[in-house]
């Protein structure tokens, strides 16, 4: 009996090996592409949204300048629509603005939530770069952002026809992200 | 030229390394006569790597921005000290340091082990050489520190400003001396298994080479902790960040190893267990590097990384760990030497202590990689942080600390608890002492437990010291023996006492900290506790590589000046980053910690003041633990043949 | 990878505020204590392994204010945590909920301890018998 008992020692190295093998098997994606070996980390750095597939949360917004404040009627179209959290102080927002403009040109509605911004700066930002939004509300308290599970600006949500959240894009919509994520929905 | 030379030296070191491995395999039978020649070549390996590392430092000092590493991590305006430190403040440079320190240890081991059986020493060197070869290969293939840029920039990108700090200059090399020092017990264990001779005595070797990394690892962790305390701006000193956890893991395993060696020494038992601990200690330092460098687990320490590196390191450590464990499984001694365990014997309870340490290590390890496991298995994201570790580790730390004085006091092979009366007396005294603290403070159960444990550990180790000094005095036959024996006793007492002091510091800081956050106008006076604080003024200035705002505050107690504090905010234009520099006035009983917050209006600022009671006890405790390890080192005894 | 750096970038841009500010602190000391306790368990998602209590980011500030608001309205700690998990996912809690797969995380250590302790006792009694 005593011989077996000291083999309990082996539990720990086996445990370590198990964890290491987990890393070995799952942590990396190895692909052969164009004759080149490409190794990718399998662990996403992005935080997943917990709201995917759920009904969209409410807006608690105050009016921003002369713009229309988002209401249910703005979402009352049977088409995909975007909800975009932005601010004039956020540099990546400037970077993604172009993609938003072109999405709007394709006939999709975008609701803007102006997060903790100075109304004057926001106004300047929009006159300078153009206004892709069908309605804009100001979220000074950050309450709407919490309700939508937003943790950083810019963040964009794609809603389906019934106003359920289909996907969340944290960070700017660059052309690659548009290609990879949004294109399938917006260019059917 | 310099960096090409460095690269060349690295390549030649690798070739030499391979040659040495081949040589040491063949010397077993054929080339035994070349041993002296072969010795000199190993120091050459160390010299080659050292020169190559020096050359890297030289390119950093010269701000040679045609070297990619320098361009990414240095800036012409940076003070010279941080230019030098830039050499190891990044992935490639630190990997070079890693390999260099491995070879330093190889060199030291070889120089100090002349009296040991040749077979054993040769095998140990073989294992160490193979480890060096693996990492050197990785360095050359995937993270060459001497890579050139085709179009060198005019100026570099600078080191992250919060890393520009004197303590952080010393932190990585000392920590590495600890991590990689563990490679020697690892090599000794595997080398010993390879000799097939179970009668060799590796006890004194293992003891010495497990204490060396213990001292460095303890100091390295301490430096990192002190840095976090004054740099990160809210006075925390341990965050359970993955990086900290992975430095704690080898430390815990090494601590278990040091204590299990005692059993091996006294009772000639637990050989397999000790060998396994030696293997695991270094395995954990390698796993730690992987976790830090692969970026798979979010941590404050993320080196810029690309996945192929992570995969490669993973392959290397998998190879090293699996092969050493295979050697362990096939070659471990089947000699069934089960010692007789008495209930009141030291050996039984040291085993339980070892077990507690391993359980603590397991929890920390599991907690660290848990987010990864969950992401892989269930595709969900979880966080494991401070509150989790507090809840799940506290019981085991309490068990550990409570057993400590008892275990160190009871006898080897003891049949019954001899001084039961003194023990109970001591417990009662500790309870009384810790309860008396609540005359001034509100009662909290955990605070009480912490205070009790600290006085119990401190008093216990002190009492044991005095009593064993007395009883041993009768048996002295020579002065030398007294010194050897006492350096162990002194070391042990010092380390255990330090642990008690550490518990006290932790308890005091977590339960009695005072915090004060408010808006203060220039010229305003206000009170925190019994301290009067006067905001004297604000000052703007421009330094060599940053701009700063500093406030000046006078702290008075009973109208006597305690100190003048000047917390700062700095802007580093080269990275456009703002850092806060806390100002700390340390005294033995209190640390006065001030941080300058935001500007409210023209002359009003947010000021945060913390009074941290007895935080210096944490540092003192840890220094005592390291000192204890160092003193124990002095009793290094020469090789003795085994007495079975 | 680029995304990852963006998050850093956002975090930096947003760091105009500072960790707990005087204006945030509740006058009711008990509620403030509870708020502190709660926030030490809530992760600042845009930062590196920091809780919202010590983080300087705008995100952390919002959540600090939100928690205090909810506490004043009389919510319990559990309700607030549940709400945040429903919005941000389990990732936001530093102490995983003691449920489903996390039970393994909590019980693995104690299990090993008890199991091997029993094993050691086995050895102990066996060695007694042998002699």
How would you describe this protein?
The complex is a heterotrimer of chains A (188), B (644) and C (131). Chain A is an alpha/beta fold and 188 residues long. Chain A has six helices and eight strands. In chain A, helix 3 links the parallel strand 4 (81-86) and strand 5 (109-115). The longest helix of chain A has 16 residues, at 11-26. Chain A is elongated and about 75 Å long. Helix content of chain B is 62%, strand content 12%. Chain B has helices spanning 2-26, 35-61, 68-73, 80-85, 91-112, 118-142, 166-181, 183-195, 203-231, 242-267, 271-294, 307-331, 346-378, 386-409, 420-436, 445-473, 479-512, 615-633, and strands at 514-521, 525-528, 531-542, 547-557, 560-565, 568-572, 577-581, 583-586, 590-601, 604-613. In chain B, helix 8 runs antiparallel to helix 9 (203-231). Chain C has 131 residues and is an all-alpha fold. Helix content of chain C is 61%, strand content 0%. Chain C has helices at residues 2-14, 29-39, 58-72, 77-88, 102-130. Chains in contact: A-B, A-C, B-C.
| Net shape of chain C | elongated
In percent, how helical is the residue content of chain C? 55-70%
By secondary-structure content and strand pairing, the structural class of chain C works out as: mainly alpha
Beta fraction of chain A: 15-25%
Biggest beta sheet summary of chain A: 6 strands, mixed
Give a short overview.
The complex is a heterotrimer of chains A (188), B (644) and C (131). Chain A has 188 residues and is an alpha/beta fold.
What topology emerges from the helices and strands here?
The complex is a heterotrimer of chains A (188), B (644) and C (131).
Chain A: H1 2-5, H2 11-26, E1 28-33, E2 36-41, E3 62-63, E4 81-86, H3 91-105, E5 109-115, H4 119-129, E6 135-139, H5 143-147, E7 155-159, E8 165-170, H6 175-186
Parallel strand pairs in A: 4-5, 5-6
Antiparallel strand pairs in A: 1-2, 3-6, 4-7, 7-8
Chain B: H1 2-26, H2 35-61, H3 68-73, H4 80-85, H5 91-112, H6 118-142, H7 166-181, H8 183-195, H9 203-231, H10 242-267, H11 271-294, H12 307-331, H13 346-378, H14 386-409, H15 420-436, H16 445-473, H17 479-512, E1 514-521, E2 525-528, E3 531-542, E4 547-557, E5 560-565, E6 568-572, E7 577-581, E8 583-586, E9 590-601, E10 604-613, H18 615-633
Antiparallel strand pairs in B: 1-10, 2-3, 3-4, 4-5, 4-6, 6-7, 8-9, 9-10
Chain C: H1 2-14, H2 29-39, H3 58-72, H4 77-88, H5 102-130
Helix pairs in contact in C: 2-3
